[in-house]
Amino acid sequence: MLRLLLAGILVLPLASCRPSKKDGEAPKVQKKVAVEAKPVVPPPPPEPLAIPAVSGGRVGRDDPAWVAADSYRLSPAEYGQPDWDHVRLAAVSHIAISGRDLARNDAARGDFKECATAYLAAAGRVRAVPLSGATVTPVRDVLASGLERDGALCAALATRTVPAATGPSLSAMRLRYYALALRAEKGEDVREGARTLSAGVAAAAQSFDSAPGASAAPAEKALWLARAWDDTVDPLVVTEAWGAWTPAERRRQMEGLSAALTAIGSGETKGLFHRPAAALVPQRVAWTADEFAGIALPDPWVDVGGFGAPVVTPQPEYADAAAFRALAERLAVRWGTLREGEVPRAVRSEVAKLGDRPEGERYYQALALQNGAIRQLSRRGHFFEALLVLLEQSPPSGLDWFAPDRQGALIGLEGRLRLLSGDKDATKRLHAAMTESESFLAFVLMREGLDIKAAPAH
Questions:
Q1: What are the φ and ψ backbone dihedral angles of 103, each rounded to 5 degrees?
Q2: Residue/partner pairs of 138-144 with CB below 8 Å, 24 or more apart
Q3: Are 411 and 432 in contact (CB under 8 A)?
Q4: 177 CB burial (10 A radius; 0-12, 13-18, 19+)
Q5: Is the pLDDT of residue 20 over 50?
Q6: How many CB atoms lie within 10 A of CB 187?
Q7: Long-range Cβ contact pairs of 323-326 (< 8 A, separation 24 or more)
């Protein structure tokens, strides 16, 4: 009730823009924008990220405060963060991702003018979030700059031009690819340019800025990951890997770009803007214990949606961790053999069986099973089924409220899955996600003001 009374008052103008569709309503699947696909060989398993997760405190098996929670938390410590700026940064990333998905939905339809508008609107929302800490502001600026860069790309494509770009970054090489694509569509001979750029992509694929070491400061890790993710992400099509971001995703994206350059070099002239996405090697589906028994992260964009951010990994206390791993492995193997459409019901049934366990144990085990299923179903391209599993996590309750802006992230990931399912309400949910994140930020601003006023005078 606290969240409804306070956040609602703060953001009344925003709340009036919320769509009327209920979170749990099943989507109406419609035909999505087709992207030409090519048969590819599955890749080897991705390499682990060279930034070890920071170990956080243990999560007890039970706490009455978790069960009673029904609103935003009142202090940064309850979110596991050192200050309100770090809490805000989570919401900033959620806004940036949902805004990017909205823009790419327009780009996938070939509406580059609307794409540019959506990108620049999202950048404005991100830059408007008040941050003052030197450890978080650079990350926000990276996310905003990336949105502005890709907004400029879409604005240029709307006039059949491409911004000039140099350097070995993946984003710069993409711009040079789009310039070649425009020339190829006009009938120009771009074979030499394609060969030159292919050589540059191959050279860049062999090098990558080293990730900060385990002893590096969290701010250094956060900034490196933000830059690496921003340089990797496709500006025109939703192609992020399902699961945690790793450097392997950069190689996968570069391989897709190389395949698209080969197509241009062979004389192809159609569908070139979306060709890098169409040529991507699909992720390997893994119905294994590692995917279903690991400690799930409450931020679904990090745990499921391929966003790069350092996290504090919870350490929940299980009565018998080995027994849960054995259970997760049995379930994963069985779920991997089910017919299409059967996995969501099977996951729901198993999660219900965890209901009598202490909250700290039940929450993380249920989240692990659900997120593992969402990842595998999405890797298979079964986005509607993945959506049905995700919807089981809403509305937030209990420990959900101890993750910054979890509701905004859940609605955003719902929007992405609806988008990939071809659901016409996808854009409404993505807009609702950003509105929810801004409601959360309004509460944080109010809460921070109250904390300052309550501080003793010096």
A1: -65, -40
A2: 138/219, 138/223, 138/226, 139/89, 139/92, 139/93, 139/222, 139/223, 139/226, 140/89, 140/92, 142/223, 142/226, 142/227, 142/230, 143/92, 143/93, 143/96, 143/226, 143/230, 144/96
A3: yes
A4: buried
A5: no
A6: 8
A7: 324/293, 324/365, 325/289, 325/293, 326/289
What is the phi-psi region of residue 267: left when phi exceeds 0, alpha when psi lies from -120 to 50, beta otherwise? left
Structure tokens at 441: 């930020």
Any idea of the CA torsion for 303, 124, 394, 107, to the nearest 10 degrees? Answer: -70
Structure tokens at 52: 């070890």
Other C-beta atoms within 10 Å of 90: how many?
Answer: 24
7 touches 447 (CB < 8 A): no
This prediction has a pTM of: 0.87
Work out the burial of residue 349: count CB atoms within 10 Å of its CB; fewer than 13 is exposed, 13-18 middle, 19 or more buried: exposed
- pLDDT for the residue 287: 98
179, 138, 136: which is closest to 156 by C-alpha?
A: 179
Encode pLDDT of 293-342 as tens digits.
Answer: 999 999 999 999 999 998 878 889 899 999 999 999 999 999 999 999 99
CB-based contacts of 343, cutoff 8 Å, min separation 6: 335, 373, 377, 382, 385, 389
Give the mean pLDDT of 146-175: 96
Burial class (CB in 10 A: 0-12, 13-18, 19+), 32: middle
Rounded CA gap, 358 and 62, in Å? Answer: 5
Per-residue confidence (pLDDT) for residue 18, from 0 to 100: 34
Question: Parallel, antiparallel, or unpaired: how do β-strands 54-59 and 312-316 relate?
Answer: parallel
Contacts 24+ apart (CB under 8 A), 23-26: 23/391, 23/394, 23/395, 23/411, 23/414, 24/391, 24/394, 26/388
Q: Residue 201 — left, alpha, or beta (φ > 0 → left; ψ -120 to 50 → alpha)?
A: alpha
Q: How far is CA 102 from CA 99, 270, 295, 396, 426, in A?
A: 5, 24, 30, 24, 9
Q: Which among 367, 373, 326, 327 is positioned nearest to 346, based on CA atoms? A: 373
- Taking Cα atoms as reference points, which of 413, 110, 410, 373 lies closest to residue 240? 413
